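Researcher: Next sequence.
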Amino acid sequence: MRRIRKKRSWHAICVVILHPFPSKDTAMIRMNPVVTIAFVLVIVGALNWGLVGFFAFDLVAAIFGDMTIAARIVYALVGLSALCVLAWRFSPRSHADVVSSPRA
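Model: Next structure:
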């Protein structure tokens, strides 16, 4: 496999989200399962904040109750996930995680 240089942008992450089955022209990111779960939780949290901002509807509170223990655990997990994704994104090792997809 040939390594490619990664620009300091979110382009490679967006490629993985928008194109889960990479073609021969796209880049692929290798993420460990913890970072993958954290990334999904960050997306869920961002969607929840979008609902709060646009429609004044808190989905987490609607599912788990207003500031119950379960809702607080979900909010805490989303916050910890954001820190995990930030640490992964700005770690020196993350720049080597982008590899070209295998050629068929």
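Model: The first helix runs from residue 11 to 18. The radius of gyration is 17 Å.
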